[in-house]
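seq:
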Amino acid sequence: MRIPSIPGFDQQAFEKYFKNTGWLLIARVGSMIVKFLINSVLLSRYLSTEQFGVLNYPMAIVTFTMAIAALGLDGFITRELLTHPERKNALLGTAFWLRLAAGILTLPLVYGVYTLLSLAKPLETPFSYVLIVACTSVVQSVNIIDSFFQSRVQGKSIMLVQVSGNIASAVIKLLFIVLQLPLIWFVYSLVLDTALLAVGYIILYRQNGERISNWTYDKRITGYLLRHSWPLAFSAILVTVYMKIDQVMIPMYENASQLGIYNTAASLSENWYFIPVAIVTSIFPAIMHARKTEIERYYKRLQNLYDLMVVLSLGIAIVMSLGSNLIYHLLYKPAYWPGAPVLAVHVWAGVFVFLGSASGQYLIAEGYFKLSMLRTGVGAIINIILNLFFIPRYGIIGAAYATLIAYAAATFFILFIPKTRGQGVMMLKSLFLISLFQKIVKR
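struct:
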């Protein structure tokens, strides 16, 4: 891909990062399709709504502890490897041992969370299932190798591992279904998914001429990593609460069957969320270049990005919302059909996810890191409060409305901050198609 010559623009670097983004996008799309077909469609056809809910609940809880166990190190280690490649073995080794220790320490935390949630109502998912899945926090410590490949811009390598792992996982789950194995086997398969990825990373690392045995633990690096990565870890935890709290709270008021139905709707809705991430990753370098060279063009490109996000997300929301009944009749058995109206509501949250992804990059570009974290925190608090009121009164469709309102509030929270209010207004112009209409009129 060639672009016109621009003063100060590195064509070779652009092509390198564009290709890397392309590989990452392929990996994300491949993973999404495989996971959706196996984890949502085929498994839901094999399991009852109650069993499907019981299967998905452990991961909803463990997602929080996984965010804690990751310690926010992945992105930070990537940056450190770019800056200090000569310290590779010490950085990777120290990060690995920190994540391994954190993963083990989260196991008692899982028990505490499970016990606390059980106070409202005895949970139908046995704690043994949750504990099994919680082991993923330990296994995923090996995934720090991903930072090594990210630092070398080897998106193709990451794609190979992810796609191979997902295919192997799909084959195993299909085998379990064919053999008509009981639910516990599918619980173990959730840990196996993480283990397959870990093995793939280790094999690829060795093929690059590297050895895990060369990793070292450095006490001095430990303090440095923890001091600088804790904001990232805290932000990841807030994002997890913001995105997953509905699935944790539903069993506090409803049965596992209702959670199983809700999970199908959430899966259908959230599978589109890779799109804004991929677009922003590809486009934002050009937007940042405009910020350095011409501020007017910088804001124009941001407005164009918001317009694009709204057009795409509205298109998805309208099609999925109007076609929700047809989608459920085609993909799921009748026991899951009550999820259609839930999908019709939940999918509209994607409009704010798309806009939030774009504006989130703006906040990072301007250095408003604390504001970005605050916005996520506000969304998480609103989501929790609304779920407390909506789920007991309206059931799982109440959880969908809580998610929609919380996402909208978090995205447009920047309207209440003077220095970012302008961006909020720009997003509103895109949301109500004012900006798009003005462009059409000008033409």
